[in-house]
From TrEMBL:
Residues 1-11 have a biased composition (Polar residues). This is Uncharacterized protein. It comes from Pseudooceanicola lipolyticus. Residues 1-22 are annotated as: Disordered. It comes from the Bacteria.
């Protein structure tokens, strides 16, 4: 039993380290796309259709060179962690 538990824990750790953007990422991106459209409709009475969305992991330093000036960059911060403490 210990060998089986150890094998499954190793498998979970390996799966967590992988970039699963081709499997679980699709559903997250779809939910974000649909959620943005729904929020714009409900809160602002604004019809919004998100036609393209991507997800990437990178450091903050790499982000500066990655985002073009004509792109929309969003920071989702539901608990105001990144808010200025003025």
């Amino acid at each position: 039993m210990a060998a089986t538990e150890s094998a499954t824990s190793v498998q979970r750790k390996m799966a967590a380290g992988r970039d699963d953007s081709h499997t679980a990422g699709r559903t997250v991106l779809r939910a974000l796309r649909l959620g943005l459209a729904r929020a714009a409709r409900d809160a602002l009475n604004l019809p919004v259709s998100v036609i393209g969305i991507t997800q990437a992991r990178m450091t903050q330093a790499a982000l500066v060179g990655h985002v073009d000036g004509d792109r929309l960059l969003m920071l989702l911060d539901p608990v105001n962690i990144f808010r200025d403490p003025e």
